[in-house]
Amino acid sequence: MSKGHTPSTETRRPDKAALVIAVFLAALGGLIYWDASRLASMGGYSGIGPATTPFVIAGGLLILAVWTVFEALRGDFPARDRQEVAPVVWIVGGLALQMLLLKTAGFSIATGVLFAATAAAFGKRKLWMTIPLGILICLGVWLIFAGLLQLSLPAGPLEHLFW
Amino acid sequence: MNTFDFLLQGLLVAAQPMNLLYALIGVTLGTAVGVLPGIGPALTVALLLPVTYKLDPGGSLIMFAGIYYGGMYGGSTTSILLNTPGESSSIVTALEGNKMARAGRGGPALATAAIGSFVAGLIATMALALIAPYVVKLALVFGPREYFALMVLAFVTVSSAFGDSTLRGLTSLFIGFALAIVGIDQLTGQTRMSFGIPDLLDGIEVTTLAVAMFAIGESLYIAAQGDLGPDKVEAVKGSVWMNAQDWARSWKPWLRGTAIGFPIGAMPAGGAEIGTFLSYATEKRLTNHPEEFGNGAIEGVAGPEAANNASAAGTLVPLLTLGLPTTATAAIMLAGFQQYGLQPGPLLFATNPQLVWGLIASLLIANFMLLVLNLPLVGLWVKLLTIPKPWLYAGILLFATLGTIGANPSVFELGMLLAFGVLGYVMRIFGYPIAPVVVGLILGPLAEQQLRRALSISQGDVTVLFTSPIAAVLLVIAAAALIIPLILRARGRGEVLAQLAASED
Asked: Is residue B504 one of the residues assigned to a domain?
């Protein structure tokens, strides 16, 4: 789905990526329907209960899925720009690393890694320089927000040196 | 007491030294973040929401309103000097403003944008104060079904009436609905869509979703475009002051822009950009210098910027009086109210008049602060535009995750942030609008509550939704707003609507 389409030649072909979206919407609708069906008996005397809205939303998603299939087959989806994969991997990887490191290494180190990975995604690939820089900036941010504004940001070995 | 007594009382609240300080911090942060390219007011407010967690409700809402207004001012600077509008409502400003900057008239362009925003903000805030009590009175006769109909109308206008595809707008809205039902049902206490995961019981935080979709989704999208070379920042040459001719050509567009922008913002019509397009078209038709349009006409900056700010104030009418957010920014502001257990609406005017009127009065004060911040100090903000992209986006992601961690330091929350960020990125690739997801998430549960109340009263009879005249009229308008654009697009007249796309706020 990350391949660019040229509108002039390919607009009237079935759009496979859009079909994947339709499947996703249908699956989401099905999931909501399945989850809500165990609450269906809770309608009370009016028949209106916690399952009513989920059923409506599930129905809406299924209709939208069919509509999406229809537009995908007609090739009505807009042309897409070509997407570079590497920068996306850098940022997603940075966010994932931050998530994993947060509890053990603390806010500054985890977020410093994210900082460096994002900079790498935009072309600054000198990690030996950007990671320490990121950690330093994040430590400053931690001192301001956790120290002065009392936001509860997880502390790690680095933060414990100061607090 | 009449409106002016309330407003005077509000001014007394807003003029307390601590509240003045909050307002000043708000407008400064708002302008700074608003100037940064790629960040609109919605993201500005979402990013800065955690900063206000530890403050008292009054002070933090005042800071919030300052951030909102500041973000609107800051966006115009980006459009004029960089030609990359920070938010959709500044696209039109970029048309003429960037041309003026290239012709060496960046100073007057910035000045007419700032003074126009000031004039519009002042008039529109006064109009807000005058209209609000009447809307509150009207809202008091609203029952559940009228509220439900009003929300349906808001859903339609936000998702599908404008933009280039009814299908994609509605899909975004329903994704928002799907996320909204996660958690504990408010009326019965049953868990829905939680699958036994404790972290999901509280539902999905609006700020997590908004920050993920706007900050992370946008960063991923910009990064994936590859290296497009550095953006060209136009230097501000010459004086930032306008000459007599600039004044003569600006004051009428300011007033017309205000008159166009405020009503559009006040109606549940979704987004400030519609007003800016209408204002631009009006100025183009009325100008004495038609040859300058497209080459840097000052009217084309003055009118739309005024319309932009006037509709920002207009958006606060349904938000404060009805609790109805009609833009992504307003939706996040509603989340800001809710974090203090406050529900905007007619009751808030009765139970907490000090807070509401203090907020409205502080908007007037924020406007004066912004004029000072934006005219003499514009050179300072321009420096922000020269931050290289790697550091800019690294900083954006740092603060985006800071907000989420600060609100809830859990690995699960960060996982949701990442997942929604990727979702926002994929939606951007395929041209799905983002704002309806945010509005669906926050307004969906409120609409469900009203619907279930209405149907419980009628013992499950659905026709009750259409038998109240007010509700029926609102639903007919909603149906028209859904069907007419569909027909227009089918006949190939969709370009006009696509231009009015509500992409960010």
From this structure: no
Which residue in B294, B22, B393, B447 sits closest to A123, CA to CA?
B393
SS3 B184: strand
| Count of the separate structural domains present in chain B | 1
Interface of A with B in 87-126 (CB under 8 A): 87-88, 90-92, 94-96, 98-100, 102-103, 107, 111, 114-116, 118-124
Name the residue with higher pLDDT: B75 or B126: B126
Q: What are the pLDDT digits (tens) for B428-477?
A: 888 888 888 988 998 898 899 889 888 888 877 888 888 888 889 889 98
Give the number of other CB atoms < 10 A from CB of residue A89. Answer: 13
Structure tokens at A35: 């989850």
pLDDT in tens, B203-262: 888 888 988 988 898 889 888 887 665 566 676 666 667 778 888 888 888 888 898 888
How many whole angstroms separate alpha carbon B343 and alpha carbon B351? 11
Q: A130: Cβ–Cβ under 8 A, 6 or more apart, which residues?
A: A115, A116, A119, A120, A124
CB contact under 8 A, A92 and B422: yes
Asked if the Cβ–Cβ distance from A57 to B178 is below 8 Å, we say yes
Q: Is residue B491 assigned to a domain?
A: yes
Please name the residues between 396 and 435 in chain B that touch chain A, using a CB distance below 8 Å.
Answer: 397-398, 401-402, 405-406, 409, 411, 414-415, 417-418, 421-422, 425-426, 429-431
Scored b (16 or more CB within 10 A) or e, B299-337 reads: bbbbbbbbbbbbbbbbbbbbbbbbbbbbbbbbbbbbbbb
- What pLDDT is stored for residue B311 in this prediction? 86
In terms of residue numbers, what domain contains B54?
A: 3-499
| Per-residue confidence (pLDDT) for residue B61, from 0 to 100 | 82
Cα→Cα distances A138→A132, B215, B324, B392, B405, Å: 10, 18, 37, 14, 13
pTM above 0.80, yes or no: yes
Token output for B340: 């203090």
Residue B379: its pLDDT value, please?
Answer: 76
CA distance B149 to B194: 29
DSSP code at position B406? H
ipTM over 0.95: no
On whether residue B479 sits in a domain, the answer given is yes
What does the DSSP 8-state code read for residue A153?
Answer: P
If you average pLDDT over residues B87-97, what whole number do you get?
73
How many residues appear in chain B?
Answer: 505
Nearest CA-CA partner of B259 in B317, B306, B320, B319: B306
Burial profile B111-137: b = 16 or more Cβ within 10 angstroms, e = fewer: bbbbbbbbbbbbbbbbbbbebbeebbe
Return the CA Rg of chain A. Answer: 24
Which residues, 6 or more positions from A148, have their beta carbon under 8 angstroms from its beta carbon? none
To which H or E segment does residue B191 belong? Answer: strand B191-192
The answer to whether residue B176 scores a pLDDT higher than 90 is yes
Other beta carbons less than 10 A from residue B103's beta carbon: 14
Q: Tens of pLDDT along A122-159?
A: 888 888 888 999 999 998 888 888 877 777 788 888 87
Please answer whether residues B41 and B72 qualify as being in contact, where contact means their C-beta atoms are separated by less than 8 angstroms. yes
Residue B505 lies in a domain: no
Give the separation between CA B473 and CA A132, rounded to whole angstroms.
61
Tokens encoding B454: 């209405």
